[in-house]
Amino acid sequence: MRTLVLNAGYEPLAVVSFKRALMLVMNDKATVVEVDTGHPVWAASGSWDRPSVIVLTRYVRIPHARRVPVTRRGVLRRDGNHCGYCGKTATTIDHILPRSRGGEDSWENLVACCLKCNNLKSDRTPAEMGWQLRLTPKTPHGPTWAVRGVERTTPVWDRYLDVGFAA
Question: Which residues are the signal sequence here (predicted)?
Fold first, then answer.
């Protein structure tokens, strides 16, 4: 069971365990906004509903330039697990400009790729193969990328993850 932590301004900050969320609430550092009524927490002194969303009582300043690290899983997730060349299910990633030719490990140079296309392309560029990219690779943004642990969301979190993010 995981809990979404919101800043005092209701912007998403992190995802923590329900135990950590309960400690924040019990120490008056956060208040419960949404609860999961189906799974209570039992203790010697009674039972409590597990918090699903909490909001901090004090504002925590976070850096605006919170960069999303480039990972294999992140590239696959950004591209919806579809090959950037043929559109089939992607299982790996590919450098658009191969590393042997100076290509970097960046969001703009990586694309999800199926094994067949990756082997066919080998050490060439898409232009040399006569291929077109089905999407323009770019750095992902938004609350589901800035907040760690939001890969697997719950329906209750959706309205809090969309707050204040028009980018």
Answer: none
Q: Which two tokens stand for residue 71?
A: 């990972």
Same domain, 49 and 79: no
**Tokens coding 147:** 């907040």
Full-prediction pTM beyond 0.70? no
Query: Which single residue is written with the structure tokens 């135990």?
Result: 19
Residues 54-84: b if buried by 16+ CB within 10 A, e if exposed: bbbeeeeeeeeeeeeebeeebbbebbeebbb
Residue 33 domain-assigned (yes or no): yes
Tokens 């694309």 map to which residue?
111
Q: Are residues 156 and 121 both part of a single domain?
A: no
Beta-bridge mates of residue 95 = 110
Q: Is residue 7 part of a domain?
A: yes
Residue showing tokens 């067949």: 116
C-alpha dihedral (101, 72, 156, 165), degrees to nearest 10: -20
Average pLDDT, stretch 61-70? 73
